[in-house]
Amino acid sequence: MGYVVHCSGRHQIGLAGLAAGVFGLSSVPLELQRHIVDDATKSGTTKKIIWLAIAYATVALVEQALKLALNIYRGWVSETSVRTLRKILREMDGTDSAPIKNKDNGETGTHAAMVVAEVEPIGGFVGIAISEPLMQLGILTSVISYMAYLEPWTLLLSLGYLGPQMLFVPPMQRAINRRAAARIRTVRRVGGDIVEQGVPEDERIERIFRLNMGIYKIKFSMNLAMNFLHYLAVAIALGMGGLFVVDHRIEIGTVVAVVSGLGKLNDPWGDLVNWGRELSVDSVKYRLFADALQRGIRPQPGAV
Prior knowledge:
Elements: H1 2-24, H2 28-41, H3 46-95, H4 105-126, H5 131-150, H6 153-162, H7 165-197, H8 202-246, H9 252-292
C-alpha cells in the first residue's frame, strides 16, 4: 500500500470520488423497487408506477455510467503502474555492471519471470487498491442501513450472514498466501531452468501443479461456504417475510426489497474478499519483487 500511495496518490483521490458516487446510489434502486411493488399490489396509479420505473432505470443508468468511468480510470492507473515497474527492471539492468544477456542464466530467468508475469498483478492492484474496498464497504454499509431502516430484524440477519465468514475466511486466505508465495519462487526457478537448460525440471513443474491445485481447493471451498450462507439468509428472509406479510405486519414490497438487498450484499462482500485475497497475494509478490532489486532502485514519485 505504501507503493500504491507513492506512485498514484493523487489518482486514488479521483478513484475514491467515483467509488463514493457508486455506493451512494446503491440503495436507491431498492427503495424505488419497493414503492413500485407496493403501488402495484395496492392498486396505485399507472402514471406513478411508470414514473417510478423511469426513475429506477435512470438511477441504474447513472450508476453503471459511474462504474464504467471508474473501471476505465482504474485500468489506466493499473496499466501505467505495470509499465513503470517494467521500466524499473530495465533501469536496474542498465545500471548493473553487465547487460542482462551476459548475466548469470538463473538471474536472467528470474528477470524474465518478473518482467513477463509478476509485475502485471502488482501494477494491476494499484488501480483497485483504495477505490475497491471503499466502494464495496460503502455499498455494504448503505444496503445494511437501508434494510435495518425498513425492518430492524434484517440487521441481525445481515450480521448472521457476514459474521461466520469473518471466522473462516482469514485462515483460509493465509493458507492461499503461503501457496502463492511458494508458487512465485518456483516459477522463478523454472525461468532459470529454461534459460540454462532449455527445459524446466520436471519436479518443479509438478510442484507448481500441486500448489495451484491446493489454491483451487481452498479458494472454491471458501466460495462454497460463502454462497451457502447467502442462500441460507435468503431462505430465512423469505420465510420470515412471508409470515409477516400473512400477518399484515409488513408489505410485500418490503420482502422484495430485503431479498434484493441480500443479493446486493453478496456481490460486494465477495468482491471485498477477493480484494483482500489480491492484497495479500500481491503483497507477497511485491516483497519478492523488492528483494530482487539488489541495487535498491525505487520508483520515482509521481510515476503515474
